[in-house]
Specification:
This protein is an alpha/beta fold and about 500 residues long. The chain contains 16 helices and 11 strands. The protein binds pyridoxal-5'-phosphate. Pyridoxal-5'-phosphate binds next to helix 6. It comes from Helianthus annuus (Common sunflower).
Length: about 500
């Protein structure tokens, strides 16, 4: 506790406009330089665990430090520990696409830094969110029933997981109210359905909202059925639960699953949900972006039959983290489950029910002005620019897929729906094994191929296990990825696979 004899900093003004201008320009230059040099960095960070905790000072600095010194340390200590998701050689997971429009929107929203929990707390934050959600609704040709002009509406959440939690709570409260009486008894009987391809965060959301994990049915899918959720399997599972006295609550369909980008048939599945009075949600976290192009919109056919729909702008829509757009068909389902009305926030606009108070559509009270970022992105690129962005990556994925198909050393394991290709080394690639090697041997070789490609630092991809088969997922969607990067990847795949097969 020696700090009591430190001189005070009489001159500090953390929001001096001229100092802001000077320092912010330095940071803008720093980021621009980062993007100019991005291909020089290993795509996946190669540091060892604890690298930073070992080198950083053990306690916070007492005195202010100049931005120049801090930026030097970003270069020296932080960048080596970054996995460069914006690198054109990044093909891992799903993309997290950035853009100038998004960066500038982020600056503006942080510049104002309002906390728009209700309309009055910043009318522009709420109303711009309603505007961009209506724009996106039209772009995706979502049904009018999801619009603010009928009983629905849209909200920006931080993540798909939050959208799962909020729609599950809405469904839970609706169901518990229907059953009235014994809440805890009914709660224990509620069942949630999904497929074994559904994103794992649905299970987390079920844990959060108090669904018995033994009542979460993960229905098995098959490669021969392109990993779609089978209407018959769903019906059978629900019927068997109903016979056992359980209560179907919620079912999640996915358009663009995480392992393979499979798309569930919404039209027929939503009919089943209605028949059993379940809440149906569509998770199109990754693939929703593609559906702004008319040639992909058919993947959403049937969405008019579900209760809610969400997709992540922060994956493939040139928008930085974190923006998950959620629409519901009946906004009162959400607000009945999530609203609070503390004395502290009482105001005329809210009392007369003339406004949307987004605090009642989400988990937290406080919220960022994310609509500013989305508005900037859409205006900066226009619908045509956004569609071109999607189509460019789809075209590159088709190109990469064609190269694989033409080479009998490889197998494209599942059909490509969007801009991700799943492949493995074919069991027939080893000339020494006439009848083809086993899946295990192919798995081992494919895994070794992925590790050697990633080890180069020039590219980065991730994998999935599907029906016992190890596949390399090539997710094309980084904003800077061009044909030359995909061709480089192909040359590398060729080089590394010959090395492996020669061993
Ligand atoms: C990425 C992904 C998620 C998780 O999204 P978060 O916004 O990170 O929670 C959920 N579902 C699918 C299909 C995804 O691809």
């Amino acid at each position: 506790m020696g700090s009591h004899n430190i001189e005070p900093l009489n001159m500090m003004n953390p929001l001096d406009p001229e100092e802001f201008r000077r320092q912010a320009h330095l940071v803008v230059d720093f980021i621009a330089d980062y993007y100019s040099n991005i291909e020089q960095y290993p795509v996946c960070s190669q540091v060892e665990p604890g690298y930073l905790t070992k080198t950083m000072p053990k306690s916070a600095p007492l005195r202010p430090e100049p931005i120049e010194t801090i930026l030097q340390d970003v270069n020296k200590h932080i960048i080596p520990g970054i996995t460069h998701w914006q690198s054109p050689g990044f093909f891992g997971y799903f993309p997290s696409s950035a853009s100038t429009g998004s960066f500038l929107g982020e600056m503006l929203l942080t510049g104002f830094n309002p906390v728009g929990f209700n309309w009055l707390a910043s009318p522009a934050a709420t109303e711009l969110e309603m505007v961009v959600m209506e724009w996106l609704l039209k772009l995706l040709q979502l049904p009018e029933s999801f619009s603010f002009s009928s009983d629905g509406g849209g909200v920006i959440h931080g993540s798909t997981c939050e959208s799962f939690v909020c729609t599950l709570v809405a469904a839970r409260e609706k169901k518990l109210n229907q059953f009235g009486t014994n809440r805890s008894d009914t709660l224990g009987k509620l069942v949630v359905y999904c497929s074994d391809q559904t994103h794992f965060s649905l299970q987390k959301a079920c844990q959060i909202v108090g669904i018995n994990l033994s009542n979460v049915r993960s229905i098995k899918t098959k490669m021969s059925m392109n990993f779609q959720l089978s209407p018959d399997a769903l019906t059978m599972a629900v019927e068997s639960d109903v016979r056992a006295g359980l209560i179907p609550l919620y079912v999640c369909f996915t358009v663009g699953t995480t392992p393979t980008t499979a798309a569930d048939p919404l039209l027929i599945l939503s009919e089943i949900a209605k028949r059993f009075d379940m809440w149906a949600h569509v998770d199109a976290a990754y693939a929703g972006s593609a559906c702004i192009c008319p040639e992909f919109r058919h993947f959403l056919d049937g969405v008019e039959g579900v209760n809610s729909f969400s997709f992540n702008l922060h994956k493939w829509f040139l928008t930085t983290q974190q923006c998950c757009c959620l629409w519901v068909k009946d906004r009162t389902d959400l607000t009945k489950a999530l609203s609070t009305n503390p004395e502290l926030l009482k105001n005329k606009a809210s009392d007369t029910n003339k406004v949307v108070d987004y605090k009642d559509w989400q988990i937290a009270l406080g919220r960022r002005f994310r609509a500013m970022k989305i508005w900037m992105v859409i205006r900066s690129y226009g619908v045509i620019g956004l569609q071109e962005h999607i189509r460019k990556h789809v075209k590159l994925a088709k190109h990469f897929e064609a190269l694989l198909v033409a080479d009998n050393k490889f197998e494209v394991v599942v059909p490509r729906n969007f801009a991700m290709v799943c492949f493995r080394i074919s069991p027939f690639a080893l000339a020494t094994v006439a009848n083809g090697c086993s899946d295990e041997e192919s798995n081992r070789l494919t895994q070794a191929l992925l590790e050697s490609l990633n080890g180069s630092g020039l590219v980065y991809m991730t994998h999935a296990m599907i029906e016992g088969i190890y596949v390399i997922r090539v997710a094309i969607g980084a904003t800077l990825t061009d044909e030359k990067h995909v061709n480089m990847l192909w040359d590398m795949v060729q080089g590394h696979v010959s090395g492996l097969l020669a061993k």
